Amino acid sequence: MGIVSGSRARSPWLFLLNASSCNGCVMEFLAALSPRYDVERLGCVLVGTPRQADVLVIVGPVMRKMLPMIVRTYEQVPEPKAVVAVGSCAVSGGPFVGSYAFEGPLDDVVPVDVYVAGCPPKPEAIIRGIYEAVARKFGRGPGGGDGD
Amino acid sequence: MTRERELMRVPFGPIHPALKEPVKLTLLVDGEEVVDVSIELGYVHRGIEALAETRNIVQVLHLVERVCGICSHAHPLCFIQAIESIGGIEPPERALYIRSLVAELERMQSHLMWLGVMSYQAGLLTLFMYALRVREGILDVLEEFTGNRVIKEVNTIGGVRRDLDDRIIARMRSAVKELRRALKLLIEAVHDKTLESRLEGVGVLEHGEAVELCAVGPVARASGVDFDVRRDDPYAAYSQLRGKFSVIVRRGGDALSRTEVRILEVLESTELVEAILDELPQGEVRLGKPLLRLSREIPAGEDVSRVEAPRGELLYYVRTDGREFLNRLRIRTPTLANFPALMAMLRGSELADVPIILSSIDPCIACAERVTLVDAREGARRTVRLSELRRGGG
User: Fold this and answer.
1) Which end of chain A is more exposed for a tag (fewer CB within 10 A), N or C?
2) What is the model's pTM?
3) Does residue A116 have a pLDDT over 90?
């Protein structure tokens, strides 16, 4: 594992994309950054632009007006990238299936690597989802350990 | 020598990195000064009002819970009050107290979350982390009582779905006590010179403007509008709790006043929670009938209901068709009511203050981390990150 791919796996940078979410998942994602859960201990850093990100965390159902923004944001994330769909809305549409603005579950729009279900999922589950995505896409899990 | 004035259009959003929902602001700036602003909404439009017309009352109850994850108790509470008033249903006293209790716990966590976001925007990451850690104590008791940290699902037609027992009451008391201790430190941190000077005099909303533009909630109260639905049009158990809390009013109208109002409201909420736990009446927490039968017994009718959500007055208009479905649901959220006030605050402000002003109204949106500056005359674009704006660049 080279130095670039090694650091990518050990310290993945996250970008949170809110696709029409109700904020429930956003709050739990922020809680995952907070001292109790502290996703930064795995080397994860929240960044301000998709162009710097390795992992794209998407919350919320895909609604019509956001659809082009989601695709564009996904395209702006450089390869290799991992996508984590957080919350029932991103996974399936949740309670919003049947709305005139609903454009289908997230994996109809962009490829999704890990699904974290729940309304909203707890911060622990979100961290697990990020871990799995990194381990799957970048060869090994984040954080300091060697074996895992 | 006369210098030709250049007006620039600065679009904010809709996608931005860190916190919360997408919204697009287009600012017209003259140098550093914001001359005009327009707000484009609809990025999170989910068609909830139309969806509600296709579902029955019980399903809609779960749908409105998900209008907003931060005030996920205020929305169903407001909806269920309208339904109960149409059906002539009186929930038991204990249920009303529990509704108020959860509403106050929700207010605390919402205001603490806001304090975190606000200090993040002001560049004080320490306070962000600290506020979020303090908030976990409230989320713990909420989870223990309702089963979920965010979406609480406590309300049902004619009462609440869960009852308090002695163990959870004791847990709540100690959580509130702990919070009050932590609040002292938070209040001190807010009144620290660094943060205070960042917030003072920023985004001023005069009393007259607040009244004229129909601002609600802490935004209005920070501009000297003495109004709180809990006191002025009591619902749930608030008519019995009248003497137990005071409405926090400040006259400054700036971001600092709004911060003060919110943080002192958390303090008032701790008082309220203790009063509710002290006075909690005995008895049932819901009517004995099955939920679906109750929902079928709701006659055709219409009603308007309002509650004081953490962000201000939330208003629901509900019209039922008498066959367990809805003909119309209309939701007026406090953030929407505060947008005209936000525009008034932004006009004449400095570009670097925009993120602070935006988050100072506690919008259910906080959208700007990357900004594209468009030179109106040359059409040249350059992209600026919010963090640069925070440093006062632009």
Assistant:
1) C
2) 0.87
3) yes
